Fold this protein.
Amino acid sequence: MDLILVNLIDGLVTGLLLFMLSAGLTLIFSMMGVLNFAHASFYMLGAYFAYQISIALGFWMGLLIAPLIVGVIGAGVERYGLRRVHQYGHVPELIFTFGLALLIEEMVQFIWGKNTMPYSVPEVLNFTAFSVGANSIPAYKIFMIFTSVAIFIGLLFVLNKTRVGMIIQAALSYPRTVEALGHNVPLIFMGVFGVGTALAGVAGVIAGPVLSTFPGMAFVLGSIVFVTIVIGGLGSLWGALVASLLIGWITTFAKSYNIQMSDILNGVGIATPENLSDSVLRDLWTVTSPQIADILPYILMVLILIFRPAGLFGKRES
Amino acid sequence: MNDELTTDPSKPSQRMRAGSLHLTLTPWVVAAFLLIVLPFVFTNNSAITIMNQMWITVIFALAYNMLLGQGGMLSFGHAVYAGVGGFACMHIMNMSDFFASFPLPVLPLFGGLFGMGLAMIVGSFSTRSAGTVFAMISLGVGELIAACSVIIVAFFGGEEGISGDRTYAMPFFGNEFLQPIDVYYLTSFWVLLSAALMYLWSRTPVGRMANAVRDNPERAEFLGYSSRWVRFYSFVASGFFAGVAGGLFGINYEILTEENLNTASSGVILLVTFLGGVGFFFGPIIGAIVFTLLQTVLSLQTELWAFYVGALFLATVMFFPGGLAGVLMMHVPAIKMGKAGGLVVPYIKTLLPALIGILGLSALVEMTFHYRHAATGDNEMTLFWTTFDSHAILPWVIAGVITAVGLGIARVTAPALKEAWSEANSAGGKL
Amino acid sequence: MKKFTKLGAVSALSLIIGASTAFAENIKIAFIDPLSGPFASTGTNGLHQFEFAADYMINDKGGVLGGTNFEIVAFDNKISPKESLIQLQVAIDQGIRYIAQGNSSGVANALTEAIKKHNKRNPDDRVLFLNYAAVDPALTNDKCNFWHFRFDANADIKMDALTDVIAADEGIKKVYVIGQDYSFGKAVSAAANKFLGEKRADIEIVGDELHPIGKVKDFTPYARKIVASGADAVVTGNWGADMLGLGKSVIENGFEGPIYTYYAAGSGITGAFGASGKDRIRLISQGDVNPINSDEARATYDAFRAKYPEGNIDQSRIFNVIGMLGEAITAAGTADDVIPVAKALEGMKYQSIWGGEVFMRPQDHQLIQDMHVGVHTDENIDFDYDNSGYGVYTESTVKMASMDSATTCKMKRP
């Protein structure tokens, strides 16, 4: 029972972190149609900037300043790079972000070298908040939960209650009409891209100390953010939230319990073949849930795309 | 192949038009001649190994372009079809009795068949729609199969992969394929055959319908074609040729590992194809050659090769969305009008200084890198065949001046080039 | 147009390859390891140690064979087996006869197979494979061959020594084994089960699992399982980011016992663990620098530090590779024909610069050497890692570990 509670909390942390990345991406994707492959690279930049700032000014200034820098860089990329490529169509845009991701990783190695950076949790938060059984929950995790929830509420407020939010929502579905009404759509695009990358930066700042800050951190994150927004439904903030949490919990629980494929197959009435080591399907029988935990989201995505291409909360097929 | 001049890949409606069904023989004869002659020019084994790698990438990139350029389908997981084809070939290589009664040059065909089989299974559900849905399904399936490679050890051999020995095959007219040069001609034969088949495919009704479905699936449907099945056929054919590339990979390296399947390989082939230019049949060929050279040869010269490659991609996509092939084909109208000669001098005036400026810039980058990361006391570095002290001021000044002057001249002469360009591309006028 | 591009490209190719073959004379050692990408830091640090060792031990002392120097030629394999094979071919074409590689047993497997085939098919330019770090036991057992020499202790030898220490600790009743899901991780797990069963039948292995290599973002769920299992100690063969992630997560989430590791030092890992790992992380390795064994070793390390202030000698066996190769070439009287060199290496006894004698076992080409179990600490440290003040302090030593261990190697000699 203890373990279930602890896993719920861990899954929540993982999910919310993922949400901070996917929230920005889903807005960018649905508005501009860009599969931004460099999104995770902005997350990495956030962590490195915050590390650099935290040496001089401490963790909290890093949390404040680093996302701003990342956001400005993101907006610059949109203004001077993507906007130029936009006229050529979606595939060149995608290749552009691909190349950008490659370049950012190289730049980071150029500047900070290839080793892991000693970016660590601030002293104020370096204690155990509470324990469930023998499992301790670090205070930093509680801090992560609160930060991401605050960001979610903030985003929801801006999108639904402010004029800017209304225009963004309108531009999501009918960019041409919004432009015809006299709004500066390119400026909105740039703003959304900047804010989206800044959110990724925030995620990097707070994830850097726990998930280590190293040049491969963007690559490790990989394409899971795309999976999240596709499952959630493009352009839907709620969808991104639900999908993030779903993925967080699925992977956490799959890793925490050793469920064997043979148990499941026996459970549905298929007997384990004799001479298992000679069987062609031996690897299938010995699969355990932690082994496949990280590919479960991909299976989920493929199933969703086959049966409900608009995603869980999406309104339109992409 | 030089008969499609009007294609402008930046406009979707003009991407890679299907030309007439007749096949100009000249380029193929030239290509065959080159393939035969090249090993006599570059005799050492490493050059041959690198060329083998190039031709394999050429087949794979052409297969990929059947989807992207001709069919408008963006795939993020195409490496799995090449990989599975290759793994199947390795297993055949390891069936000693069967393999011993079997000439090696036929093996890639089996790779193709396995790649095609997998493509038929996956295509049955992934080709129902194009666009993002197709792209994301390909990503998901790609990740799944790549992850399976470490789980299903019986077929994929886990992390260390599956290895075999090509020389156990039945001797092919007395040849046991001991040396890279033997494999080179085997690979060359397949690259020529596959390229010709893929070119012919793009000229068949199915290939042309793929273009139509890419540009406007609705209209294609109204004409009575099922866009879904058209996509399916393209996908399966592409899977076949990807599998052939995988089989050739197996023959060349005698080992297949997880890296043949993973998403990084899938991403690379997308970049290669795009770098060469998706709008032209021969685009991916150029892309594969250039990329292999960059990856293998440039990385011998500098640790920062990935940095330059990334910069090259960004520059290509921002300034030449038609890829390298697009750049070449831009000149065809000028050549047809006999005005290309007027471009030579402005080109030299602008591009040569620009090239020197870029080299100067890269020298600055290398020097900064050396300054920051080299061992203390190790101040000497060698760049462009000159050895100097990276901590002294003079080399920095020289590199800086070269960069500034080079780029400066290029900037000054650029308007003249632009003028010459529009002059060369407008009909009539003086000459 | 196509023709033109092709011509341009290949002439560039021949130019570049030609340029690098122009100068010769030195005895060249090809260093084929990742110098870019996620594992670049390990590869770069290894390269620095190779270059330093070649200069310090051979070239500064007048070279071998009457004045011939060693030269390390770096090849970036991007940790990909395919790239490694291409670079191997390039290296062979440059006339290089000695190939050094270490990172990833997968790459080592590909290389040893390729070198075996190459030497069979091209008797005129055979090469030797100096494996300085890939520890999959199969390389000196089922997959052994005459051309492959391993200078690190294999996973079984390390585990044998490590379990001696675990077995001596009466407080340990439950052990959790976790590793990366590939040949090496599986070898570690198998060895842990075997040796713990032999040495302390009362120790219960409460968990034995593999996780995907290089793909786990957050190790928290694994840490929870470890805590929940009530384990007294954790044993892991993880390396790189997987080691750091697992270790940090396990410590953070309330595990109190020791963590026994293979690779939790250097390349930024020591620095990143810092105070949190103190007295918790234990490490099995062949080299010990704390306390330093001799003035000679101290002078060597000081010289290395002067050259690479941010570097670590975390793979001190590299010095054995260079030293032993030097002696073997001297004994053989030639560097071009690798068979006498290989024969001289076989059965060689060598006094390591870091202390202790090492022995290249002829049956399987596995180097037999002292193994040390050290602890991550900041006390009594002569030479720290990552300039962090923390280093590995040797707590116990197993002399000539696994000298008589069995091998399944059936070596075919030319």
In short: Chain A has one domain: 2-256+288-307.
